[in-house]
């Protein structure tokens, strides 16, 4: 069945460090891919998405590229801030959304 | 601009008690969802409603029932709570109809309801 695998956390970085959170997927058909973010005490919100191969989603300095050949959608940011501390979920959608288990990110000042 | 509103935000139950989690959205969305979030498990779909008047099971429906009361409201009921149902519950809605969710994928989430079953 369809599934999403993302790197386990927690991930701890210093402010201004480079961030990568790995995400790979398995899906029948041609899924759309997403990153959602959950800030402490809140629900999830969409961070970025890509709907076809080679598309790049971007928002708030975060980027992810839909790589069909490697079935991946890794999240990157060039310089993280303390305010980026949150849990990040990779997800795919064919006809319903399937979430990964989430990666907790801690940014130290 | 309320979005998706869930009540209650916190609840403690004893094993065997029943309760209903309420969810309402003011975005005129067609589809609504109930997820549970457990440490190390991500989000798992309990039930969903593709449109008013329809409901279907998700990954983990056992022990739960739902009602799509109207287009705005989608409630989740625990008839006889068990400790395994201790979790954080999220309601979500989308303007995409089920089957076309891949075209937008944007789910709008409530703030969550933390349920503890003793």
What kind of oligomer do you see?
heterodimer
Percent range for β-strand residues of chain B? over 45%
Structural class of chain B, by secondary structure, is mainly beta
Computed Rg of chain A: 13 Å
How confident is the prediction overall: mean pLDDT of chain B?
90
Distance between the termini of chain B: 35 Å
Provide structural commentary.
- The complex is a heterodimer of chains A (109) and B (118).
- With 109 residues, chain A is mainly β.
- Chain A is built from no helices and 12 strands.
- Chain B has no helices and 11 strands.
- In chain B, a hairpin with a 5-residue loop joins strand 7 (64-68) and strand 8 (74-78).
- The relative contact order of chain B is 0.32.
- In chain B, strands 2, 4, 5, 6, 9, 10 and 11 form a 7-stranded mixed sheet that branches.
- Chain A binds chain B through residues 30-32, 34, 36, 41-46, 49, 51, 89, 91, 93-97, 99-102, and chain B through 4, 40-43, 45, 48, 90, 92, 98-103, 105-112.
Helix and strand layout, with pairings?
The complex is a heterodimer of chains A (109) and B (118).
Chain A: E1 3-6, E2 11-14, E3 19-21, E4 23-26, E5 32-38, E6 44-50, E7 56-59, E8 62-65, E9 75-77, E10 86-93, E11 97-99, E12 103-108
Parallel strand pairs in A: 2-12
Antiparallel strand pairs in A: 1-4, 3-9, 5-6, 5-10, 7-8, 8-9, 10-11, 10-12
Chain B: E1 4-7, E2 10-13, E3 19-25, E4 31-38, E5 42-49, E6 56-57, E7 64-68, E8 74-78, E9 87-94, E10 108-109, E11 113-117
Parallel strand pairs in B: 2-11
Antiparallel strand pairs in B: 1-3, 3-8, 4-5, 4-9, 5-6, 7-8, 9-10, 9-11
